[in-house]
Design goal:
Blueprint: E1 2-6, E2 17-19, E3 22-24, H1 27-39, E4 48-55, E5 67-68, H2 75-83, E6 95-102, E7 110-115
Parallel strand pairs: 4-6
Antiparallel strand pairs: 1-7, 2-3, 4-7, 5-6
């Protein structure tokens, strides 16, 4: 089992915009995607992929361990943003598991990947 932590804040995939010059993504997402592609170690389709999205812990929550993240962004849009980073066809991934968490004390927002 291979593991890797992408030290970048999770971001959901927004809807593409349509302009007079074609279809495009918002500039902030395009910039996030360009940075995230450089951090992605997976070059071939894995048979299984596990993705954990770790979001910054809000001040309203007491200090402690990771707890489940049950607010927006939706997990399916977060998964789309990670799958869009792959240089191969993501249809070749046969199985995956995803979860969203608030970071524990002193932990930064990141995306954790495990694959076979």
């Amino acid at each position: 089992m291979n593991t890797h932590t992408m030290n970048i804040e999770p971001k959901s995939c927004p809807r593409p915009r349509v302009g007079k010059f074609g279809v495009f993504y918002p500039k902030s997402y395009a910039q996030w995607r360009a940075r995230a592609i450089d951090m992605l170690p997976i070059t071939e389709p894995p048979s299984f992929l596990e993705v954990r999205f770790i979001f910054e812990r809000p001040k309203r929550l007491k200090a402690g361990a990771r707890i489940p993240h049950d607010k927006r962004p939706d997990i399916d849009n977060c998964i789309k943003s990670v799958f869009d980073l792959f240089s191969f066809d993501d249809a070749k991934i046969t199985s995956f598991r995803a979860s969203k968490w608030y970071a524990r004390d002193g932990e930064n927002a990141c995306i954790e990947l495990e694959w076979e």
